[in-house]
Amino acid sequence: MDAEGPDLVLEIPNGKILKENFVGKDIQKYDSMLVLSHFKGHPMGGYGGALKQLSIGCASSEGKSWIHSAGQSKDQTKIWDNLPEQNKFLESMADAASSVVKHFEKNIVFINVMCNLSVDCDCCAVAEDPCMKDIGILASTDPIAIDQACIDLVYNSKDPGRDHFVERVERQNGRHTIESAAGLGFGTRDYEIINVD
Fold it and tell me: N or C terminus: which one in the chain shows less Cβ crowding within 10 Å?
């Protein structure tokens, strides 16, 4: 969002791990946000959707390091050999996501595209090929509900690649991000799917 600092600091008074989030200062120029996410697996987070896009996707370079290190360092050169316990990383993503949602208040909408469902993120240098058939596109005003719905669609799928995708989510305890976000109260895990043809 902004290649040049200084970063905008978003406060997270009720954050479980992080008490502040660092995003590009130009986020202040906008009064609304459309969060478009390619829902897929992820080697670190287990899965990537709206919550990851809000946290890692909106974070500045230093902010990404802050989240990945669970608030220990903003220096990319210092975090990779000292990564935190997995749940602290996932809780840090939930904390950071909450600050972006709060910043935009009600002026934010989420779209998760469940196509090309690989266990790897688009950011991987060499990502695995998709393991599941396309499911569709979901939209919501709640980032927690949309990620929960996507996870449930994968878990309830009869696609032969479902087990491979689920293994990635569970290996990284990916659903904990959703649980942590719900605990912060900026959305709910409850949802109703309304099909639009």
Answer: C
- Which residues make beta-bridge pairs with 38? 113
pTM (whole model) above 0.70: yes
Q: What are phi and psi of 163, to 5 degrees?
A: -65, -40
Asked whether the CA dihedral 64, 69, 72, 74 is positive or negative, the reply is negative
End-to-end CA distance of the chain: 34
Residue 166: its H or E element: helix 162-171
Between CA 169 and CA 164 the distance in angstroms is: 9
What number of other Cβ atoms are within 10 A of residue 141's Cβ? 12
Average pLDDT over residues 110-123: 91
